[in-house]
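Q: My labmate handed me this sequence with no annotations at all. I'd like to see what the chain might look like in three dimensions before we decide whether it's worth expressing. Could you predict it?
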Amino acid sequence: MSQQAVLEARELTKFFGEIEAVKDLSLTVNRGDIYGFLGPNGAGKTTSIRMMLGLIKSTRGVSRVFGHDIHAEFKSAIPNVGAMVEGPAFYPYMSGRRNLRILGRLSGGVPEERIDEVLDLVGLKKRGNHKVKGYSQGMRQRLGIAMALLHNPPLLILDEPTNGLDPQGMREVRNLIRRVRDEENVTVFLSSHLLGEMEMICDRISIISNGAIIKEGWMDELVGSGSDVVVVNVSPHESKECMEFLKDKFNASPEMVRQGVIEFNRDDVQTYDLNKALIEAGFRVSSLTTRRRSLEEYFVELTGESKDVN
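A: Here is what I predict for the chain of 310 residues:
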């Protein structure tokens, strides 16, 4: 295990009867990462996390937290982790503060000052004394993160933290995760099938499909940081004709995002030559830009499982 690694899985495998749910899963999370564990629903993400945390026993393989084997040295490993797996559970008729206080007592006691700190950190300072039954889904997710942070863990593991949230709630949780990493010096491991969300927050990622890791690395190295996709804006009524032109002239495989907006992989096409050809062919080009391919597009290239990508 390297000096910077805070979580490491090596060849984790889990059978349920004859079904191999997770296959030889290996990954490394380094100190300071916001690490994304990505894949469609049913890919094996939660089962993998439960093995990493020692909540279920792996059929084979090993998981280490700060160098401690999660099974052989559970009492040494688990205090380093705060986790929210498969959604937070609360006493709905108690306040958020009361829920935190009870959890703190059950796990050895937490000063009231720390409860104040985590409520403030997750943006619930003004609502901490309100009953949880009146919380929105986003507030419940925030309280779940507060619970996971209660004992100052250096590693935070969150399973689908933005599941069920509206766009505003997703943005709030995303900003919170960044703040936890930057202000609390916490390494964050995120599991999600919401690829667009993870693209906006993760430094490093691994992609799991059918129980197996198929890619791991830095986001920019895997997805790219340059201009992989060309975006052409023409008059809406020219869309179909423009697509045929791009196929014939540049051997492209264009897609119509909406009327008047066409995208295709850039490959070796030079934007100057493309713009010149479109103008000479009589198309009314209002703009021609390039962008990086999205994580969703990269995922579909790898797996083809577009029906489960969000």
